[in-house]
Amino acid sequence: MDRIDLLIDVVLVLMVIGMVMNLGGLLLWVERKASAILQDRIGANRASILGKLPINLGIVNTLVADPIKLFTKEDFIPPGADKLLHTLAPIVAVVPALITMLVVPFGDIIVIGGREIELQAARLDVGILYILAMVSLGVYGIVLAGWSSNNRWALLGGIRASAQMISYEIAMGLALIGAVLTYGTMDLQEIARAQSGMLFGVLPNWGIFYQPLAFLIFLTAGIAESKRAPFDLPEAEPELISGYFTEYSGAKQAVFMLVDFLESIIVAGLITTLFFGGWQVPLLDRTGIQFPWGGGIPLPSLVVTLMQVGAFTGKVFFFCWLQIMIRWTLPRFRYDQLMILGWKILLPAALLNVLITALAVLISESLK
Amino acid sequence: MTQYIPILIAVVLCGLLATLMTSASRLLGPSKHTPVKDEPFECGNPSSGSAWGRFSVKFYLAAILFIVFDVEVVFLYPWARIFRQLGFFGFIEMLVFIGILTVGLVYIIKKGALEAV
User: Which residues partner with A289 through β-bridges?
Assistant: First the structure.
């Protein structure tokens, strides 16, 4: 571990956090526009300078005007609240959400100056466990926010959020066990590598074809974990104002909104890595494009790396978009329906998936 | 342990970033208290006192059930990782383990522990 290694670590960490933060900001705009399109409106399309000069610069308006507006609002702490916890809660909520994507690989190896660098900020042997741990930590920020506000809506939202998140965490963890069984490793880079090549010569060798049930369970549980509709009971506007962050304003409220988007990005990143080949591009390997009928197009390694990073980003975009579409299409669940779906449908289905996968692994091993 | 250095870097960095972001409004925004604004927001009704009281026991039940089944999930991870080495014996072992916990799940469903509050 010398200085250059440390520098590489810092650069990769900055890259991942920068990517996640920027994508979060971008999704705020995509969400507003997508909801507008689905509801047959135009949506946010202009901002004004000091209330005088309306300008229409498309995406720039929302990306620049929204944060400026939120950051210059009053930072209000209710006098009845627990001031320390009220201040601490957004920080506790956002830090685990920001650092979860560190273990998700966004490309293969890049060679710079004879040094092989994995395009993954932190290569852990226990990557999947790390993700589950960070997702669990996210509950603390929400519960602290709900409790410390000393507001009934906030408290109800916080309790609902914790009950919902811990209920769906089990199904989420069990769905991931199917993937661990299939690949025999918890290292996400290894899992992404194992999805290279083709299946039956026509399909990409992606996890979805081995674990379709786990994908559905993980997508459902993931949306529930990120507290998005149809699972947005913790912040159900008609019932609870905005749930656990009712008493938050300005930048702190912006942070809670950002956490929601970060969690969507985490879910999209994990679905991409575990079920849709991560950075793998069909037919592409380290030397270039290989056709299954022989022959191919050799490509320089930089182009291959860029294609892989592009493929990863594109897939993450797609699943973020899918989550936003689901959010604006389906109505909200009731609390008891939420519990029934989590405990009586997803949990047994995930257990069944584990058993079926184990049986399939046993059979395929004995056939070898 | 060198695997975890990037995570340490990220925790420090994100901690600073989050502190900066959450204190932005305090530094940039106005600050004005009025008696009405200082009340807890309960849709305009006069507040009926502190929110720190009792709430439904059902939520505690969900938390306790979570612990039982989350521990199950944690036990399944090492098993899944080395399943290929364990072979048929490991499969039967885990079938017994999951079977016992499934009986527990059926029991709590029949008992109505997950019904609406």
Answer: A284, A297
